[in-house]
Queue: 2 jobs
Job 1
Amino acid sequence: MVESKKRVGLFVTCLVDLIRPSVGFAAAKLIEDAGFMVEVPRQTCCGQPAFNSGDRATARALAEQVIAAFEGFDYVVAPSGSCGGQLKIHYPELFRDDPDWLARADAFAAKTYELVSFLVDVAGVTHVDATFEGTATYHDACSGLRELGVRVQPRRLLGTVQGLTMKEMADSEVCCGFGGTFATKYPDISATIVAKKAANVVATGADMVIAGDLGCLMNMAGKLSRDGKTIEVRHVAEVLAGMSDLPAIGAPPRERTP
Amino acid sequence: MSGRDTVMASIRRGLGVSGREAPRRQAVESRIAGHPSGLRPARGQLPPKERLELFVTMVERSAATVARVGALDDVPAAVAEFLRRHNLPMRAQRGADASLAAMPWAAETTLAIDAGPPDPASLAAVSRAMAGITETGTLVLASGPDNPTSLNFLPDNHVVVVTAADVAGDFDAVWARLREKYGESLPRAVNLVTGPSRTADIEQTLVIGAHGPRRLHVVVVGEAE
Amino acid sequence: MSAVVTSPAFKANAKAALADTELQKALALVEVNFIVRRRAAADQLPEFEALRDEARDIKDHALAHLDLYLEEYEKRVVAHGGHVHFAVDAEEARRIVLDVCRRLGAKTVTKGKTMIGEEIGINSFLEANGVVPIETDLGEYLIQLRGELPSHIIAPAVHLTKAQVAADFRRCHADLPRDRDLTEPTTLAAEARTVLRQKFLAADVGITGANFLIAETGSSVIVTNEGNGDLTQTLPKAHIVLASIDKVVPTLEDLSQLLRVLARSATGQEASVYTTVSTGPRRADDPDGPNEYHVVILDNGRSNMLGGQFRDILRCIRCGACMNHCPVYSAVGGHAYGWVYPGPMGAVMTPALVGIDKTGHLPNASTFCGRCEEVCPVRIPLPKMLRHWREREFERRLSPATVRAGLRFWAFFARHPRLYGLATLVFARSLAWFGRRRGRFRFLPFARGWTRHRDFPAPMGSTFQAQWRSRRRSS
Ligand code: SF4
């Protein structure tokens, strides 16, 4: 039976790889639970920082690297709308004037998905086996929302987490001010934008804010903790995979049990 | 090279064309000659009765007021009523429009109506719209001696008369009437007016009566057939 | 003579803007009002999204045949007794306007809102040449009193509060009673109305912009709410229209489609109050209207954009929706952008008009959140064009040396997966060790900007890939 399972290449994203491996494990669990086989080929970054900095040559070289590493899979899944958008929408743009590569990029893009939309739209997942006692609010990270149409899928699955009450924040679809290198190039502006986002999060009175992109999550977590707020910040994959017992993003590690 | 030739040459360079390509010229000529309509919103395509109702609703939504009268002869009374209601001097100005001239103004003994060139001091004007536009609650006023353009803007109060038969569904229907009436050459100004003058330039607070009329009163004459 | 470009100081401008509490108050209103109203207007018209497609296609068609439509347009203006002047650049456009004013012996000129007027710096030029320009759009009037540039393309004074306006009126309308009440927008607007009414009646020449030029009829079209543009063009001896080459559209039916998306996108109205289609000067039997009608059609570098990656921005109908929905604009306001056009459309347009060497910050100061493109009535791919500017900057080595060096360093590792795996493992582990107690950093030397305002979450430990491989190996 195992042989008949479709193979998913998990594009874990450089931020998750570096900062928050648990998101990668959560993603792998969710995809496996949905009946797929998960593999993690050696990988670095999708190249978006180069692409958005105007360095097309590097962006293209990294795109070729990713496509070569992943094109053998039935699906490619990333726990990020931003990287997902880079793979699915912008890779083909990078090869516009190279027919051979364009064909490969198109084929690659066609089987590439952001994690939660993959679970709902492709795998047909309708509910998850997870528990969280409390209320949460969901932030629609920009690329996932506007480039990939991720909006109802996470809400649908979060609705099946036992004990979890979802509460919409005002302007959930407004940018959190992260914007990749933007946050480091224009930190003051970025900070003003994330302050508005944090205020909207706090205003819901929720115990937890959830999103599908680690960059945005780190930005919101950093702002909330700097302001002394105790709201937990978590990636949607962790919540759906029932891994909410891990320390939240930016929270101190719990005492280890020996 | 003149500025014109330089600009044209630069545009053609940018587009990579010579300007003599027959298919391009053909495309432009037929577009202008045929002036095809695009998608026309359904709300502008109602049957006459519903259309008129929606027109009135849309005009009111634009912060204008509406009076319905049966015939052109009832207009002077409606004008007098409007002026009285707002405690305005019983005096109004109009252009040479024959239908306005033919109205029984004398019957309104307290009301003085002046025909002639616009006077910056006048507080109220009466104009006849050539059409109404249902999709937006807009009035269409054409310039000329009949309805001088400045009457649309100078006085504080503007009463516009439009007949039910002249209320069109949408913009496109009005363009057709303009072509029918004026041929190749539009009047100097065609004013599409939707509500009284307003501004939101100070703290985005809506203030009615910025530079044009503070009040727009629309007298709709007759019923839809 | 054109407005001074302060875009190179974007960061300093932004910093000042962020610290300006009055400005922040004013900006908070933009975010709420415009967005909610646009949404409501769009929701009320089921055809709205389809109309956006048509509006885009109309502008694309017009741009693809721009030379021919301009010829058709010009022919019909002339047939109606008007004059068309093509201007290669700002200087030529200013000259043309001054010549008309001089010939007519004009002392004062009233002005409707014209962004082209701002672009060519017409006011200071006329003033320097003894002609007094008077802005009559309330917002433009307010910023003229302050000697500022507009901070928004449809709401030029959106950065001001009513208290600031009241102070300016007391300063500039010195002949009015000192103790008059100027607390509310209504009283302020009424005072401006009274003051400007006299100016309208006295002006020799009226200058307006044009939202559209119609090839079929030789008409210019202005769309306003106040009625100032109409008084400006109806009362004086001459009407001068300032337009740019991209304003021409084929027919009245095309105008319908553009009007249907313009007001809804801009202010959330079903239609703006006054849409005026002007064709030539006063006719023989007209009781009013200008005796002369001039249209100045400015290129100023736009024709060069037709052939390249930035053609799509020429579809812009200046509705302002992109800036209303932009998180960066909402944070810093329009003046920070440092020239005439702010927000996303300005960040694409300004580098084209004044050079990317001076304006590099503009396309970089974007999170690429994509909201501008989502609301643009003519579906201009604004983020993509901002990225194209970043590419130009990178190609021309204009981006900061530190950025380029950092990118090279990172790219080297990213292109060598094994090396990358090792380096990130060491990096993640050591950073995790330093952050092991709090789980976050209040200060990081390599992310000072970040940690100035927010904490930086610490890595959990080993990288995902290292953990995955060891787990899978042991299982
Ligand atoms: S770019 Fe689009 S949204 Fe922005 S002003 Fe122009 S038309 Fe409006």
Job 2
Amino acid sequence: MNIIVCLKQILDPLIPVRDFRIDPELRAAVQGSASLVTNIFCENALETALQLRERAGGKITVLAFGAPSAEDSLRKALAMKADDAVLVVNDGNVHPDPMAVARVLAAAIRKIGAFDLVMLGRESGDWGAGQTGGLLAEELGVASVSFVDAIEVADGESHLKLHLKRQTDTGWERVAAPTPLVVTVTNDEHNVPRIPKTRDVMMSYRQPLAKWTLDELGIDAAAVRAGGDYYRVVDLSIPVRETKCELVSGDSLEDKVSDLAARILQVTRAM
Amino acid sequence: MSDVVVFLFSSSGPDRATEGALGAARNLADSLGGRVHAVLVGASNEALMRASAAVADAVLIADDPALAEYQPEACLAALVQISRMISPRAILLGNDAYSQELAPRLAHRLGGSATGDAVELAVDDGRIRARRPVYGGKAVAVIELLQSPAVVWLRARAFAPAEARDPSGATVTRLAVDVASAGGPRIIERAVEDAGESRLEDARVIVSGGRGLGGPEPFRDLGEVASLIGGQLAASRAACDAGWAPPSWQVGQTGKKVAPGLYLAVAIHGASQHLAGISDAKVIAAINIDPDAPIFKHCSFGIVEDYRKVIPLLRTQLAAQKK
Ligand SMILES: Cc1cc2nc3c(=O)[nH]c(=O)nc-3n(C[C@H](O)[C@H](O)[C@H](O)COP(=O)(O)OP(=O)(O)OC[C@H]3O[C@@H](n4cnc5c(N)ncnc54)[C@H](O)[C@@H]3O)c2cc1C
């Protein structure tokens, strides 16, 4: 099984709201004191891939398109025991739209070579477009399945080699799928990303890591640097939401909970 | 063309989501000076057809047996064929998992541009713009779609229903599609997790538990509180990731977007990604041991206390005060 996992490095999405700032001119978040992390769903995808490799064997290549700092995300993935890493360096300073990203990833994947499975996070914790997987599948001309949380290799000779479990609005589905295939991965109790060992983190810095430029990929690099021609962010703002929370009153815990119950019933009775 | 197509899966609705999607389509078509084509995909659904006819100019029924149960490749092929027949300026879908799965691929095949989770649509000098939460709900962006058609999946419940008109004004047509050759992945098993009486999206009261519960058992106690007030259970991502609650209970940016009359958050911190799923709740209440938990900045009332002390008392109090 040849697996390619795409990873995106983003500003830590868990920083508190009070520390979150934007640059209205650039229409993007300001890094400030936030650190850079791998998008959690990309790590869920890598974890799912690692578990698949434990059962079915094969090779995992991690691929990132991003600023030079995205090397850190790839090193961490190597420490989690991905086999190979490729960074396509984005030397532009506009956040590329999902189609531009899909085109870059598709070109890089063609350069990497034959694959059975490309895995991505369902969406990123920054812009959360939720499109890169679907667009990439179309660029590569293969089918895709979204919201996958587990993958098995099916027994038997069927061309539907993979059995995927994926989440729906009301539960889950099992999907039989051929390779090559693109899947987007969502979180589940079984694909919480493993924490790499300190020793493996240190080792990862000695492993080879390929760095490719946009110009090497035979795509319209200038268009990518300009952000793409799929969509444009024309405004970005921070919504002001203020609610005043009234803490329940009372001298004893009993009194407080009594007040809480009364308030709850006041709301439900008015419905 | 300036027409708008809205794809509705006939397995659901009519409900607030299909009403919102139809309302959004009506408004957008009126701004563009075009017509609304409501396309019902899947097994026939009389009630949804009538609701669509009261808003759309044309109702198209795509009830090919191959579409009765969702299969991604067949459904995508059908949506592409139907879109090409109509050549709309914009295509709207809901926020369900299937629509999210299809929309980007549909846009790609039609040479259009997509965006999703839209809470507002606007036409500016002929260009279609969608407002959507980004950065885990910490910011809101306006996205301008550069290619046509614009494909947008909507947070449908955020859109006002259209005023119903005389349904006999709409044409109703059955559409033949050719999806026999669509190979690829096949759904071979479907499972529905018990979510309670209605879908979380439609629940009037929700009692939701977070990582602070410390384990799966407390959800049973929350269930008892919920049943006393006609509520359903939900959870934060952390509680789902821990395996204490099924993934379909997850509320938030990447879970259910809910709009209950009351959302009671128990041992939930109030991360922006969680709040992104409850912004349409009318009243939010919280039980949290930490007075600085951000949930308290977003709720109407709450109690700073260990939930383990509060829940048993709350159960008794609710039962007593209900009388
Ligand atoms: C891309 C992305 C998407 C995400 N999508 C979602 C999503 O859809 N939904 C979602 O929920 N999260 C989502 N998250 C995760 C989110 O950022 C938070 O990590 C998560 O919501 C935290 O869950 P929690 O509040 O239950 O846990 P914690 O943050 O651990 O908070 C636990 C809370 O319980 C309280 N507590 C502890 N013990 C007690 C006690 N005995 N009594 C009372 N209170 C107690 C604590 O004070 C604390 O406030 C997403 C994150 C990312 C990066």
